[in-house]
Protein backbone atom coordinates (compact mmCIF):
# COMPACT_ATOMS: atom_id res chain seq x y z
CA UNK A 1 0.00 0.00 0.00
CA UNK A 2 1.14 3.53 -0.70
CA UNK A 3 2.58 5.21 2.38
CA UNK A 4 1.85 8.84 3.23
CA UNK A 5 4.82 10.25 5.11
CA UNK A 6 6.93 13.31 5.76
CA UNK A 7 9.21 14.28 2.90
CA UNK A 8 12.97 14.30 3.35
CA UNK A 9 15.70 16.31 1.69
CA UNK A 10 16.49 13.19 -0.38
CA UNK A 11 13.08 13.73 -2.04
CA UNK A 12 13.81 17.29 -3.16
CA UNK A 13 14.81 16.59 -6.79
CA UNK A 14 11.71 14.45 -7.41
CA UNK A 15 9.49 17.02 -5.70
CA UNK A 16 10.81 19.85 -7.87
CA UNK A 17 9.97 17.76 -10.95
CA UNK A 18 6.47 17.09 -9.64
CA UNK A 19 5.97 20.75 -8.75
CA UNK A 20 6.92 21.66 -12.33
CA UNK A 21 4.43 19.08 -13.65
CA UNK A 22 1.76 20.54 -11.36
CA UNK A 23 2.40 24.03 -12.71
CA UNK A 24 2.43 22.82 -16.33
CA UNK A 25 -0.92 21.10 -15.73
CA UNK A 26 -2.36 24.27 -14.22
CA UNK A 27 -1.42 26.32 -17.31
CA UNK A 28 -4.55 25.01 -19.04
CA UNK A 29 -6.58 26.35 -16.12
CA UNK A 30 -5.09 29.84 -16.35
CA UNK A 31 -2.22 29.95 -13.85
CA UNK A 32 0.37 32.61 -14.54
CA UNK A 33 3.17 30.57 -12.95
CA UNK A 34 5.95 29.35 -15.23
CA UNK A 35 7.47 25.98 -14.41
CA UNK A 36 10.95 26.17 -15.93
CA UNK A 37 11.59 29.77 -14.89
CA UNK A 38 10.62 29.00 -11.27
CA UNK A 39 12.43 25.73 -10.62
CA UNK A 40 15.09 27.34 -8.40
CA UNK A 41 12.46 29.23 -6.40
CA UNK A 42 10.34 26.09 -6.10
CA UNK A 43 13.36 24.14 -4.89
CA UNK A 44 13.90 26.75 -2.18
CA UNK A 45 10.27 26.76 -1.07
CA UNK A 46 9.98 22.97 -1.12
CA UNK A 47 13.21 22.73 0.86
CA UNK A 48 11.77 25.12 3.43
CA UNK A 49 8.55 23.10 3.62
CA UNK A 50 10.57 19.91 4.19
CA UNK A 51 12.66 21.58 6.92
CA UNK A 52 9.51 22.89 8.63
CA UNK A 53 7.73 19.49 8.39
CA UNK A 54 5.07 20.99 6.09
CA UNK A 55 5.24 18.53 3.21
CA UNK A 56 3.83 15.03 2.89
CA UNK A 57 4.53 12.56 0.09
CA UNK A 58 2.70 9.52 -1.18
CA UNK A 59 5.41 6.91 -1.56
CA UNK A 60 5.48 3.49 -3.12
CA UNK A 61 8.90 2.72 -4.57
CA UNK A 62 8.80 6.24 -5.98
CA UNK A 63 7.05 9.44 -4.93
CA UNK A 64 3.55 9.31 -6.43
CA UNK A 65 2.45 12.75 -5.22
CA UNK A 66 2.77 15.39 -2.55
CA UNK A 67 0.92 17.97 -0.49
CA UNK A 68 2.30 21.13 1.09
CA UNK A 69 0.66 23.01 3.94
CA UNK A 70 1.27 25.65 6.59
CA UNK A 71 -0.41 27.74 9.26
CA UNK A 72 -1.15 31.22 7.95
CA UNK A 73 0.51 34.11 9.69
CA UNK A 74 0.55 37.67 8.63
CA UNK A 75 0.51 41.28 9.61
CA UNK A 76 -3.10 41.31 10.81
CA UNK A 77 -4.71 39.62 13.78
CA UNK A 78 -7.59 37.35 12.83
CA UNK A 79 -10.35 35.62 14.72
CA UNK A 80 -9.31 32.19 13.44
CA UNK A 81 -6.09 30.31 12.85
CA UNK A 82 -6.16 29.27 9.21
CA UNK A 83 -4.39 26.21 7.94
CA UNK A 84 -3.49 26.49 4.27
CA UNK A 85 -3.16 23.49 2.01
CA UNK A 86 -0.91 24.96 -0.64
CA UNK A 87 -0.53 22.18 -3.21
CA UNK A 88 -1.89 18.70 -3.76
CA UNK A 89 -0.42 16.78 -6.67
CA UNK A 90 -0.61 13.17 -7.81
CA UNK A 91 1.25 11.77 -10.82
CA UNK A 92 -1.28 11.19 -13.65
CA UNK A 93 -0.99 7.35 -13.77
CA UNK A 94 -1.87 7.20 -10.04
CA UNK A 95 -4.87 9.53 -10.03
CA UNK A 96 -8.38 8.41 -9.09
CA UNK A 97 -7.00 5.86 -6.63
CA UNK A 98 -7.60 7.90 -3.46
CA UNK A 99 -3.99 9.10 -3.16
CA UNK A 100 -4.94 12.79 -3.43
CA UNK A 101 -7.57 12.31 -0.75
CA UNK A 102 -5.06 10.60 1.53
CA UNK A 103 -2.54 13.41 0.99
CA UNK A 104 -5.27 15.96 1.77
CA UNK A 105 -6.23 13.95 4.89
CA UNK A 106 -2.62 14.03 6.06
CA UNK A 107 -2.29 17.78 5.48
CA UNK A 108 -5.59 18.51 7.24
CA UNK A 109 -4.68 16.28 10.20
CA UNK A 110 -1.32 18.02 10.62
CA UNK A 111 -2.86 21.48 10.36
CA UNK A 112 -5.55 20.67 12.93
CA UNK A 113 -2.90 19.20 15.28
CA UNK A 114 -0.92 22.42 14.93
CA UNK A 115 -3.90 24.55 15.96
CA UNK A 116 -5.81 25.38 12.78
CA UNK A 117 -9.42 26.39 13.42
CA UNK A 118 -10.29 26.55 9.74
CA UNK A 119 -8.75 25.09 6.59
CA UNK A 120 -8.32 26.69 3.19
CA UNK A 121 -7.15 25.55 -0.21
CA UNK A 122 -6.83 27.50 -3.45
CA UNK A 123 -7.93 26.07 -6.78
CA UNK A 124 -8.02 27.51 -10.28
CA UNK A 125 -11.61 28.54 -11.08
CA UNK A 126 -12.05 26.23 -14.06
CA UNK A 127 -10.26 23.19 -12.59
CA UNK A 128 -13.50 21.26 -12.23
CA UNK A 129 -11.93 17.98 -11.07
CA UNK A 130 -10.00 19.60 -8.21
CA UNK A 131 -12.95 21.78 -7.23
CA UNK A 132 -15.22 18.72 -7.11
CA UNK A 133 -12.76 16.89 -4.84
CA UNK A 134 -12.39 19.83 -2.47
CA UNK A 135 -16.11 20.62 -2.39
CA UNK A 136 -16.89 16.95 -1.66
CA UNK A 137 -14.60 17.35 1.36
CA UNK A 138 -16.55 20.34 2.70
CA UNK A 139 -14.53 23.21 1.22
CA UNK A 140 -16.66 26.10 -0.02
CA UNK A 141 -15.77 29.42 -1.65
CA UNK A 142 -14.60 31.94 0.91
CA UNK A 143 -12.97 34.64 -1.17
CA UNK A 144 -13.19 35.04 -4.91
CA UNK A 145 -10.42 36.75 -6.86
CA UNK A 146 -11.49 38.36 -10.10
CA UNK A 147 -8.95 39.12 -12.79
CA UNK A 148 -8.76 40.95 -16.09
CA UNK A 149 -5.92 41.89 -18.39
CA UNK A 150 -4.47 45.36 -17.90
CA UNK A 151 -4.23 47.78 -20.76
CA UNK A 152 -0.76 49.27 -21.09
CA UNK A 153 1.99 49.82 -23.64
CA UNK A 154 2.78 46.09 -23.86
CA UNK A 155 -0.69 44.61 -23.61
CA UNK A 156 -4.16 45.50 -24.85
CA UNK A 157 -7.29 44.10 -23.25
CA UNK A 158 -8.91 41.85 -25.91
CA UNK A 159 -12.33 42.77 -24.53
CA UNK A 160 -11.86 46.46 -25.43
From TrEMBL:
Domain N-acetyltransferase per the UniProt entry, residue ranges: 2-160
InterPro entries xref list: Acyl_CoA_acyltransferase, Bact_Acetyltransf, GNAT_dom
**The organism's place on the tree of life at top rank:** Archaea
Tell me one GO molecular function of this protein.
Answer: acyltransferase activity, transferring groups other than amino-acyl groups
Print the keywords alphabetically: Acyltransferase, Transferase
A matching Pfam family: Acetyltransf_1
What this protein is called in its record is N-acetyltransferase
What species was this sequence derived from? Salarchaeum japonicum
